[in-house]
């Protein structure tokens, strides 16, 4: 390589370097640093610990139960939860500002679950920034899930299962099973995994309910494209039932019928899961009577989901959270539902008389009040998929049908 070539190469490299430096200098904006004009919005500057306490105190002073409606529970239950979650969500004050009180953190979360309001709406109500609220709600939900986790518990002894059977009219029924879609915003990078048959993105909840309208088992978070039966086949509940690790009672000695769970047509028929006979049956036929008896007991799970969505109105529209946080929030609502149903202070206000369907002599006389407030909900049914049943399952259903038909004729004789 001669001298001229080397010189030309050196000039080229130097020119390219100078061009790069000039472009880089132009791209870098040299702006003098300015002191921040504000630390928080002006509407937040008046927020003090006393002003936040005053906000709840005004609700407590109202004699018409405004506080109960605001957070969906009594003062006693609110204080109980406050005491339980305090060690988990407590924050320290700093030299810059005081920490948001735990009672306000709990009130924000309960109000969000009760109304489904946006973070921006809660921001104007509590004078807390939307960014902080987006951190408070998942944190408090995690704490509530931790302290209330024992309220959703499946029975593990024969005596516990037998006590569950006392509240159902269907013979040897120990629980009702159903699955629902919980609509969410489209999760990123999931393609059609969460896209259900109704054209929405959703997660699926599988629930087992007792005759007191409480959840005994829940499985939350399966992608929305899966049917009821598909969720059940992948759930821990199926394994527990098939292996009998939950100690289900042996068949009733008087009827020789097994103890079963009731479900809709989306589930596969088995010796432990009863579902209606398909098709239309004439009035008074054994199949029609069996379906009526099964539907009357299975309505417990329908009422339970109805109460849940009417009281926690976050389910009135798609949950604006990712699938993980949406599952966490849904679990919090379920735990709070059981907590309030079992509370001596909040049970009557949470589910007053007339909330659930009323039956007299097997006939529906009045629908539950939750149906009036539940015309718009984002908890929807799952798609039914036809499945071939085993001979043992078909025979078991026929035995139940014959027993129910004979019992009906004997009672009318």
From TrEMBL:
Keyword Nucleus appears in the UniProt entry: yes
Domain DDE Tnp4: 177-338
UniProt protein name: DDE Tnp4 domain-containing protein
Gene Ontology MF, one: nuclease activity
Cofactor: a divalent metal cation
Keywords: Hydrolase, Metal-binding, Nuclease, Nucleus
Localization per Swiss-Prot or TrEMBL: Nucleus
Gene source species: Parnassius mnemosyne (clouded apollo)
GO cellular component terms, A-Z: nucleus
Family as reported in the entry's similarity comment: Belongs to the HARBI1 family.
Keyword Iron: no
Cited InterPro entries: HARBI1-like, HARBI1_dom
Lineage top rank: taxon: Eukaryota
């Amino acid at each position: 390589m001669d001298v001229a070539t080397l010189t030309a190469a050196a000039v080229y490299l130097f020119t390219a370097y100078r061009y790069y430096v000039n472009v880089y200098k132009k791209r870098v904006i040299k702006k003098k640093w300015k002191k921040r004009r504000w630390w928080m919005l002006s509407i937040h500057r008046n927020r003090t610990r006393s002003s936040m306490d005053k906000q709840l105190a005004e609700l407590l002073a109202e004699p018409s139960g405004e506080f109960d409606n605001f957070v969906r529970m009594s003062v006693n239950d609110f204080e109980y939860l406050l005491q339980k979650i305090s060690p988990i969500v407590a924050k320290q004050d700093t030299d810059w500002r005081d920490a948001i009180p735990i009672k306000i953190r709990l009130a924000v979360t309960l109000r969000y679950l009760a109304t489904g309001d946006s973070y921006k709406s809660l921001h104007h109500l509590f004078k807390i920034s939307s960014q902080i609220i987006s951190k408070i709600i998942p944190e408090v939900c995690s704490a509530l899930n931790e302290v209330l986790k024992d309220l959703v518990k499946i029975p593990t002894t024969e005596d516990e299962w037998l006590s569950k059977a006392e509240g159902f009219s269907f013979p040897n029924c120990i629980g009702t099973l159903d699955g629902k879609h919980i609509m969410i915003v489209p999760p990123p990078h999931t393609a059609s995994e969460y896209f259900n048959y109704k054209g929405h993105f959703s997660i699926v909840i599988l629930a087992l309910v007792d005759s007191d309208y409480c959840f005994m088992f829940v499985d939350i978070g399966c992608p929305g494209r899966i049917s009821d039966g598909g969720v059940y086949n992948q759930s821990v509940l199926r394994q527990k039932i098939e292996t009998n690790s939950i100690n289900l009672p042996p068949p009733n000695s008087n009827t020789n019928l097994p103890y079963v769970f009731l479900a809709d047509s989306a589930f596969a028929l088995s010796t432990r899961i009863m579902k209606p006979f398909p098709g239309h049956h004439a009035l008074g036929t054994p199949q029609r009577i069996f379906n009526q008896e099964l539907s009357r007991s299975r309505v417990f799970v329908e009422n339970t989901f109805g109460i849940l969505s009417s009281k926690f109105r976050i389910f009135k529209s798609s949950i604006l959270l990712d699938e993980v946080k949406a599952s966490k929030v849904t679990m919090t609502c379920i735990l709070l539902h059981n907590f309030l149903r079992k509370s001596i202070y909040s049970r009557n206000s949470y589910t007053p008389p007339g909330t659930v369907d009323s039956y007299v002599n097997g006939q529906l006389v009045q629908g539950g009040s939750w149906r009036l407030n539940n015309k718009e909900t984002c908890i929807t049914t799952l798609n039914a998929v036809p499945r071939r049943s085993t001979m043992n399952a078909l025979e078991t259903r026929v035995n139940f049908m014959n027993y129910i038909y004979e019992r009906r004729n004997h009672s009318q004789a």
